[in-house]
Amino acid sequence: MSFPATExxxxxxxxxxxxxxxxxxxxxxxxxxxxxxxxxTKAPLRSRVATRATLxxxxxxxxxxxxxxxxxxxxxxxxxxxxxxxxxxxxxxxxETVRAILACGARLAQPGEFTRRAFFxxxxxxxxxxxxxxxxxxxxxxxxxxxxxxxxxxxxxxVEAIRRTLTGLxxxxxxxxxFPDEVADPDREALEAALEALVARLARLRRDxxxxxxxxxxxxxxxxxxxxxxxxxxxxxLLGEARAIVSELPGTTRDTIEESVTIDGVPVRIVDxxxxxxxxxxxxxxxxxxxxxxxxxxxxxxxVIDGSAEIGPDAxxxxxxxxxxxxxxxxxxxDLGTSPSARRQAPTAIVxxxxxxxxxxxxxxxxxxxxxxxxxxxxxxxxxxxLHEFDAVNAAIDALQNACGxxxxxxxxxxxxxxxxxxxxxLGHVTDxxxxxxxxxGIFSRFCIGK
Length: 451
What we know:
CATH architecture of the largest domain: 3-Layer(aba) Sandwich
Structural class: alpha/beta
CATH topology of the largest domain: Rossmann fold
Oligomer: single chain
Radius of gyration: 29 Å
Number of strands: 13
Largest sheet: 7 strands, mixed
């Protein structure tokens, strides 16, 4: 769905609630007339200059003393005439400002409509438009920096550079295919090396995209284990605060507790769960059922066992339950000693104590190794972020690898050209050149109103 250029839209661009200021923005062809009708100023509005104005309603009655900034087309965020009115941060004043603008012929903006207009007016590509929502939704400094890297259009530049290389190779192949008597076939080894270099560039984009997704969405870690093993103590230690109740009584934790920490810039959602044991009362059994659901949803299992005692049936059950999962085992309470049976049952476990800083660091490093291979993400490098972008790059990699196989098997270069055209076409889906309407709708549905 595209938005008619004849409509002027308005929305409050600041969060709801009382603050120092509220910003109301509008965009569209009716902005100049709105400014003349609703703003009383001593001097005419100038482009991109904050001007003090008395804000009037549609009847000419004063609403507030405000600052107004005019952004004429095409040098605005949306590419259309835009007006921002900065009023005092009363929700009533902000709503009255919007009401007055609506009364003068504008309509309320839909979620993401300002950025959507910017996309359709060529102010940014689809990838950068999606990055706007990521910046707004960022929960960590690393997430904000990673999103900011995508705003500059660097990904499109990289993809277009790869497509230009493919274009050159296709032109060379086409000349050899169309004029075989005059143009020799390209050197197969050199062509294969060039294609392998493109595959490596695309593989790096895919790898960076996977790490970027982790920075954006985080990793879920479930702390599980038998009762009284130190799960809640571990949660508190990782958070650096007493978030969960700690008691020597088994079954104290009856519900899941979820908190977030940051490791290597990646948000890690840690869920402390009720201890799993076979003999439990009705209330405790309900908590254990929630533990099982949290366990199923987690990407990583952090299994805590009292390593100072002999391994009991409850600990054995949890070891069996989590076998085959991405798992970190902690033999806790090593300050009280470590039993031989615990070492036998979990030979690769971290042996330590939740009170020990070295143990906590070992757990953080283990989470990083399992969650993202311990790789450091270059936050300044643009990366893939949407499913259709990953699909496009995967299709291009597949086509180029198939072309390399064709070259190695000495098949005709006509087949290579087919694969190169397939890769070229697939990469068009990374940018806005070949964007399906449902993909565009999906991206802008994540935006707030006013952005």
